[in-house]
Amino acid sequence: MSQQEYRKYICKVCGLIYDEEEGDPDSGLAPGTRFDDIPDDWYCPLCLVSKADFIPLEEMAHATPDDGTQPSHKVSNHADVMIIGSGYAGWQVAEAVRKELPDAEITLITADDGIVYPKPSLSMALRQERSADDLKEYSAAQKSTELNIGVKTLTRVMSVSEKYKKVLTTRGNFYYDKLIIATGAKALKPQIAGSVAHEMVTLNDLPSYRRFRQTITEIDHITIIGGGLIGTEMAEDLIEAGISVTLMVREQQLMSGMLPKSIAADLADKLAVKGVDIRFGQTVTEMNGTSGAYDLSLDNGEQLTTGLVLSAIGIAPNVGLAKKLSLEVNRGIKINHYCQTSNPDVYAIGDCAESDAGVQAFLEPIRRQATTIAAHLNGNIDVTFDAVSPLIKTKTSTLSIMLSLPLGANDQDAWQTETQIGDNQKLVYKDQEDHLQGFALSGELVNQANNLYKQITDAA
């Protein structure tokens, strides 16, 4: 009997693909491990959801988000709960609220088309040869029908009346009892001189990925500005897709705010072997030329010609709406342990929200925020959003890396090396009482991440 063909499964939350043929050695799953044979307590190594959140890749590929489905739930003029924003945070909290409040009138308003897609996939979709359409999971109509909520797409919020609990939009006025702001964050661009500096691109959502894919079809070299998590992941994604890359890193190491120097150095060496041109301590000061042949001036006096410039220097929370509501704003919208803003009838979630731990733009904290908001709306004050450092897996196939960065940690010298065997490193971050606060693992040692993270969360 011939061996059954290997299958691929995709995480519905983050888009990670489990290939049975390759397995997941980082999680202890040898090549050839069938999905059905994976232990039930296994979790997605990227976003930490369970095995139950994976579906066969062919089911996703055969999905038809634009199948003409019409929302079955009409948008009410008055909502018990109104959500503004349809990114991961918006849809996640919509699901959580519907689960807690099955009879509530819920309305979601979004300025875009509301398509549901796994945002983490944006920085690995090229190597997976996935188009923007391939990343779609549900249309807004399909998702709203599933959740039995009202959705207004392509609708921009102009203002909110705190006194009357009224939202003024480009498609009419709507009223709410409780409001949830899930407006996300915008990608930043460096302020540089030059006649075409405005043509620098960012990659922070599905529409920008679609434009990016269309633009790079005839481009053989891209310059990325920013050596943080996204910039580094994009550099590897592009080089594996056959596009030459120059990575401009202002600091002297990759992911300087996250990685210990030793692991960052190993990663840089491996990317360089793949062909990524990493320029440490350099940045772009001027951008001239024409599309497809930009002339870049660097701060060390060098010149560089490139086909496209991609900014990956970070994000800024969208707080404009919060300011109109006179909510307390720092870098993001300030929230308490229930994710309430300075107005107790208004909540904030996701990349736009800032807790005592700062802005945590990762999937796991967003899921906990959604659960907290839904429980609180249902009168449960026992569920709170507490500051816990998330477990992070970088999407760098050249070197497996998993870490949990201590909240507020900024001292590189505090990292202690416990194991270093070639590319396999284990570093820990401890407090003055020798309690584990964080860790960074690379290579084969990433399989220790789950146990180490449990030590941290159990002690929190």
TrEMBL record:
Top-level division of the source organism's lineage:
Bacteria
Q: What's an example of a GO molecular-function annotation for this chain? A: iron ion binding
Cellular component annotations (GO), alphabetically ordered: cytoplasm
Which cofactors?
Answer: FAD; Fe(3+)
- Pathways per UniProt: Hydrocarbon metabolism; alkane degradation
Q: Which family does it belong to?
A: Belongs to the FAD-dependent oxidoreductase family.
UniProt protein name: Pyridine nucleotide-disulfide oxidoreductase
Query: Which source organism does the UniProt entry give?
Result: Thiosulfatimonas sediminis
